[in-house]
From TrEMBL:
Cellular component, GO, one term: meiotic spindle pole body
Gene3D superfamilies assigned: putative rabgap domain of human tbc1 domain family member 14 like domains, Ypt/Rab-GAP domain of gyp1p, domain 3
Keywords: Cell cycle, Cytoplasm, Cytoskeleton
Pfam families listed in its UniProt record: RabGAP-TBC
InterPro entries xrefs: Rab-GAP-TBC_dom, Rab-GAP_TBC_sf
Designated name of the protein: Rab-GAP TBC domain-containing protein
Positions with biased composition (Pro residues): 1-14
Organism: Stachybotrys chlorohalonatus (strain IBT 40285)
PANTHER family: MITOTIC CHECK POINT PROTEIN BUB2, TBC1 DOMAIN FAMILY MEMBER GTPASE-ACTIVATING PROTEIN
Length: 431
């Protein structure tokens, strides 16, 4: 049944009801304690100022070239860890994970390794060991995953995401203030997209209303609009500030009246947050942290980060599977043609949604930039089907159903084959 016509000029803001309030349940107090503990773990910067978890991982990987990454298997995981190397390169952990699974050896020992992921999030770090708790949490996400039902629902996942994204504490009233401002300059663009969000996914449609998605995206648009206004004000700023402002807004191509506040596709990128969260405010703060700190270049007017990511998909595929790469090139198929939605949405456009959530657990633990390699992993998984097709563009119109565990496993194998300079491009392409 076709959707009813919409009047973009007429703002519609349904009242913020139960989906922005704490769930009514006999376990409400336990839920609040869990949230407070998660905030305690995530707000470590207030006690000892540190870059965000993923930022630390990026720096560590840039400081440690491939010889360190490749030889990570030879390092002893049993020794106590000092703060100087408390956030190791990606492969130091996941190579150990792969080796332990293959050989049946004991898993590496971490400071909070004796605790479950739920205990780490609920109780917070012991003895003020924030980095040790975070390292243990990342390991457990990669090794065991986040406990969830078949439909992907989990009372723990959103708190894990908030911690891994280092999302700040935000009062619900602050979110409501953004809602009560009414329609943002990007409102009509948002309304043109929201009714198309994951329309074929019954799980999403059953849990998340279009009104909820509109409110979160409109609040994000206001927040980004305010940030752009702050950078445009000519109050005694250095020339470097103005250069950074120009970088933030980018080209107005495809950006509507206010570049850098909303681009088409952000609706799909926001969808998993609303599905996983227990309130709109939680979804808002996690989504805002992702798009402003981890992939800001994805939402600038020209979406430069997305286009850099697409070029990297082609480059990585040529490195790890030259035959498949040349076949696609001969057919005139570059990643710009078939992978744009997968790059922009961190694979959220590929069903089923529960598998997207599990893949995002991995991406948030070790960096959303790894999505580029996850896309290449999906191409190599379907290489036989592509190579046997005289018209591979038909095959690539929609990727096969996502299998998060398989994609993660193939991704880990691909990382080892990537040269340092290309890996550095992947790490920074979305910034």
């Amino acid at each position: 049944m076709p959707s009813p016509p919409r009047d973009p000029a007429k703002p519609v803001f349904p009242p913020v009801i139960s989906d922005t309030q704490a769930p009514s349940s006999p376990r409400t107090q336990r839920t609040l304690r869990r949230l407070q503990s998660a905030h305690t773990l995530g707000a470590r910067a207030a006690i000892a100022p540190q870059p965000s978890l993923i930022s630390q991982q990026r720096r560590a990987e840039q400081r440690n070239p491939s010889p360190t990454r490749v030889s990570a298997l030879n390092r002893s995981p049993q020794r106590g860890r000092a703060n100087s190397d408390a956030t190791p390169p990606l492969l130091h952990q996941i190579n150990n994970l792969s080796a332990a699974r293959r050989s049946g050896l004991k898993k590496p020992v971490f400071s909070h390794g004796h605790l479950s992921l739920q205990q780490i999030i609920r109780e917070g770090p012991t003895d003020g060991d924030f980095l040790g708790a975070l390292e243990s949490a990342r390991w457990k996400v990669a090794d065991e995953g986040v406990n969830s039902a078949e439909d992907g629902m989990s009372t723990l996942r959103i708190y894990v995401w908030l911690v891994l994204l280092d999302a700040p504490i935000m009062r619900t009233d602050d979110y409501l203030a953004l809602i009560h401002r009414g329609a943002s300059p990007a409102y009509s663009k948002i309304r043109n997209d929201t009714f198309r969000t994951l329309t074929t996914d019954p799980l999403f449609r059953r849990r998340v209303s279009e009104a909820s998605l509109i409110r979160v995206l409109n609040a994000i648009a206001w927040k980004l609009h305010d940030a752009n206004d702050d950078q445009r004000r000519p109050a005694s700023r250095s020339s470097s500030s103005f250069r950074s402002r120009g970088s933030l807004t980018g080209s107005a191509s495809g950006a509507g009246s206010d570049p850098g506040t909303y681009v088409q596709g952000m609706n799909v990128l926001a969808a998993p947050f609303l599905y996983a969260a227990r309130s709109e405010a939680e979804a808002f703060v996690a989504f805002h942290s992702l798009v402003t700190r981890e992939c800001p270049a994805y939402i600038r007017g020209a979406m430069d980060g997305v286009h850099r990511g697409l070029a990297l998909v082609d480059k990585v595929l040529a490195i790890v599977d030259p035959k498949l790469s040349m076949y696609l090139t001969a057919k005139g198929l570059s990643a710009e043609i078939y992978a744009f939605p997968s790059v922009l949405t961190l694979c959220a456009c590929t069903p089923p949604l529960p598998e997207v959530l599990r893949l995002w657990d991995f991406l948030f633990a070790y960096g959303p930039h790894l999505n580029i390699i996850c896309i290449v992993a999906q191409l190599t998984i379907m290489r036989g089907q592509i190579l046997q097709s005289p018209s591979p563009n038909k095959v690539l119109r929609s990727f096969p159903q996502l299998n998060a565990d398989l994609v993660k496993s193939v991704t880990i194998g691909i990382i080892k084959k990537i040269p340092d300079d290309v890996y550095a491009e992947i790490v920074s392409h979305a910034l």
